[in-house]
Amino acid sequence: MTTLGVDLGATHLRAGLVDRAGRLSGVTRQALPPDPTARLDALRSVVAAHPEVSAVGLAVAGTVRDGVLTWSANLGLSGVDFAAELGRPVTVLNDARAAGLAEARLGAGTGAATVLLVTVGTGLGGAVVTGGRLLEGAGHAGEVGHLVLEAGGPPCRCGNSGCWEQLAGGVALNRTGAALGPAGDGTPGAARLAAAVVAGQPRAVAALEQHARQFARGLDSLCAVLAPHTVVLGGGLIARSGPIRDAYLAAARTLRWHTGAVLPAQLGDDAGVLGAALAANPC
Ligand SMILES: [Zn+2]
């Protein structure tokens, strides 16, 4: 029995076949066009190329409820019923939730009864997996980035302000990096912040420390509520070695409410595909 796992991200579509043992093969990756309709066409083509699979799992960068993408700032899509779009049953889940399921079963969290995954990308995503099962609640459990940490803080795309991701996510690091000076070469703010820290600029060092403290504050609150055995940190800004990854991992190891393991994610870019396939074949 083989499952097709698909990861529909903000910029790329990734797909692969996953067998019962969680082994991944035939991975393909393609850049997505900016047009939302063309993105759905690319997804349809990938799924249509695999009529033989027993199930299809889809991870998407957005909020999902009952197989419908209700909102996605990254994809420019909303109200998409994927089963109707693809003409076949499909299990749909948020991409951070998929990554959490995969890391808990096959990656850094293997063997831990309760795993909290937090992804540090543009925003902060999350997943809670207990006994190998994803906590879903009414659908959106794991939206950790919207934990409000600072009343009256920076406005968030969710409509609230002072959300955790606005203080410690990539958007916050980008803002800080951009404030260091004009971007002559178009380097993203977070990368400029990292470069300034490596160069020893005191303002940049202090700013990154502040973001890392904000990151630890939110993580500590989550650990107080969830009491995970293992915390896994993933996402693009943790995958890339450098001062941001180092500062966030170090800060995450100084929590009051979690003395267990804090580990970087292991599955890299395959986590979404693997998690989507696992979700489509619960066992
Ligand atoms: Zn928010």
From TrEMBL:
Protein name per UniProt: Glucokinase
Pfam families xrefs: ROK
Originating species: Amycolatopsis viridis
GO MF annotations in UniProt: glucokinase activity
Superkingdom to which the source organism belongs: Bacteria
Family membership: Belongs to the ROK (NagC/XylR) family.
Its EC number(s): 2.7.1.2
Keyword list, A-Z: Transferase
Coiled coil regions, renumbered to chain: none
Family matches, as InterPro entries: ATPase_NBD, ROK, ROK_cs
